[in-house]
Amino acid sequence: MDDTGETDVAGIFARESPYLDRYVQLGIASGRVLSVSFPDTPDEEASEDHDLLDRIFDYLGGVEEDDFADVEIALTVPTDQRRVLERVRGIPYGEQVSVETLARMTSGIDHTDEDDLNVVRTALDENPAPLLIPDHRVRDGPSAAPAVVEQKLRSLEEL
């Protein structure tokens, strides 16, 4: 059983969000999230029924402040980007940091080195699971979510 309460679930799951005015779509394998996206139209094979979608919709509806820290995400990114994204997961609900602060928080990253700051920006831009890895909480960095989604997530958390 995984942290979403589902056992060895694999597939694509999507549900339309009135708040975001688009779908929230999850790619899951072996109970781990591979991707989160926000398409206008979901994958044809997507199912609407998944416990994690229920949690996400409680969050989007303002019912529950959720940091999704217990959700397992399969991060298949370079090690330096993985360290950055793992630190992003630790930014609390309703708080924001800058790219420089995120660099300071990440081991092996020098906040004064432009190449290292570019590693941070690349990790944010290529984040496979925005919302679950809340790149919208990094105020001056890119987000892997569409700009309209990023702004609505910031508004939801009053950032």
3D architecture notes:
The protein starts with 10 loop residues before the first strand and ends with a helix. Helix 3 packs across helix 4. It has a domain at 79-156: Winged helix-like DNA-binding domain superfamily/Winged helix DNA-binding domain (Arc Repressor Mutant, subunit A, Orthogonal Bundle). It has a three-stranded antiparallel sheet with strand order 1-2-3, with helices on one face. It has helices at residues 51-60, 79-88, 99-105, 114-125, 147-156; strands spanning 11-17, 22-29, 32-37. With 159 residues, it is of the alpha+beta class. Mean pLDDT is 92; it is low at 1-6.
Total DSSP E strands? 3
Taken from the alpha-carbon principal axes, the silhouette is globular
Major pleated sheet:
3 strands, antiparallel
Structural class: alpha+beta
**Strands of the largest sheet, in order across it?**
1-2-3
Distance between the termini: 34 Å
Helix content: 25-40%
Unreliable spans: 1-6
CATH homologous superfamily name of the domain at 79-156? Winged helix-like DNA-binding domain superfamily/Winged helix DNA-binding domain
Order of helices and strands, N to C?
EEEHHHHH
Strand content: 5-15%
Q: Class of the domain at 79-156 in CATH? A: Mainly Alpha
The CATH architecture of the domain at 79-156 comes to Orthogonal Bundle
Please give the radius of gyration in angstroms.
15 Å
User: Given the structure, what is the number of helices?
Assistant: 5
- Average pLDDT reading: 92
CATH topology of the domain at 79-156: Arc Repressor Mutant, subunit A
